[in-house]
Amino acid sequence: GAVVSQHPSWVICKSGTSVKIECRSLDFQATTMFWYRQFPKQSLMLMATSNEGSKATYEQGVEKDKFLINHASLTLSTLTVTSAHPEDSSFYICSAWGGGTDTQYFGPGTRLTVL
Amino acid sequence: GESVGLHLPTLSVQEGDNSIINCAYSNSASDYFIWYKQESGKGPQFIIDIRSNMDKRQGQRVTVLLNKTVKHLSLQIAATQPGDSAVYFCAVPKGAGGTSYGKLTFGQGTILTVHP
Fold it and tell me: 3-class secondary structure for B68-116?
């Protein structure tokens, strides 16, 4: 089946620094990827849609200058949390659409802790 | 806007019992529904989906029922096993068709605990 990976799986950073999270589709091309955020004991919330070769579209309430998304190839999208603060600590999950089955596949998630 | 909710945040069952997890949705125009399983520290795993032209769909040990009249769907797990312990989410696409199906609104989740 289609596989989506994320790197790193967890990261701890100091407040004010920036963190980049990678999402890769390993065995298929994904023109569209999605980024979700999940706080502890809560549901997933869609942050943005990442389109290969074009600007990402952000959901209402998500700061595009805070969460930079780049989808430079058909297998890679990156999410950069800029000037991270403790309230950005969360589980970030990406998904990739494609694989010829008209469905999406989720990555394993990245746990971000901002001190 | 779309909202998806669950009636029970936690469900505890004995191994071998059948489990039923419920979900309510608000948009009567929704035409596609998905159930996901999420184990601790992992991403969601697809379980089963159903389109609005159906009211029942079965998979391996799982059945999804859709009642469009009351905007409710349920996930039934037969002969629940300890490995089924996880959080279960229903999800509904924000848009219609193609990759818009990837923009999901998730329900609040139900924690299923299966006791041996």
Answer: CCCCEEEEEECCCCHHHCEEEEEEEECCCCHHHHHCEEECCCEEEEEEC
